[in-house]
Amino acid sequence: LNGGEKQRVGFARILFKNPKFIILDESTNAISREVEDYLFDLIKSKKITYITLSHRPLLIKYHGQLIKLHKHGE
């Protein structure tokens, strides 16, 4: 499987197990924005609480709160 396929399988596992809380670390960096929108909409519809770690600023739109960490406290 390529990177995007592995990420979609990971989301399928999340949706199948339906946990209350998940941490997503660079979980959408190999998939299209359309698929990303779809997957985050599914997670929200299942009322799963999530924390996302990413370098992609566009993911901000999926979150109610943002914590920025800077190198050396800058």
UniProtKB/TrEMBL annotation:
Molecular function (GO) terms for this protein are: ATP binding; ATP hydrolysis activity; ATPase-coupled transmembrane transporter activity; long-chain fatty acid transmembrane transporter activity
Family indicated by similarity:
Belongs to the ABC transporter superfamily. ABCD family. Peroxisomal fatty acyl CoA transporter (TC 3.A.1.203) subfamily.
The record ties this protein, via Gene3D superfamilies, to: P-loop containing nucleotide triphosphate hydrolases
Keyword Transmembrane in annotation? yes
- What's an example Gene Ontology biological process for this entry? long-chain fatty acid import into peroxisome
Membrane-spanning residues where? none
Specify the species. Ascoidea rubescens DSM 1968
**Name used for this protein in its record:** ABC transporter domain-containing protein
Q: Provide GO CC annotations from the record.
A: peroxisomal membrane
Q: Which UniProt keywords apply?
A: Membrane, Transmembrane, Transmembrane helix, Transport
Give the matching Pfam families. ABC_tran
Q: Where is the ABC transporter domain?
A: 2-29
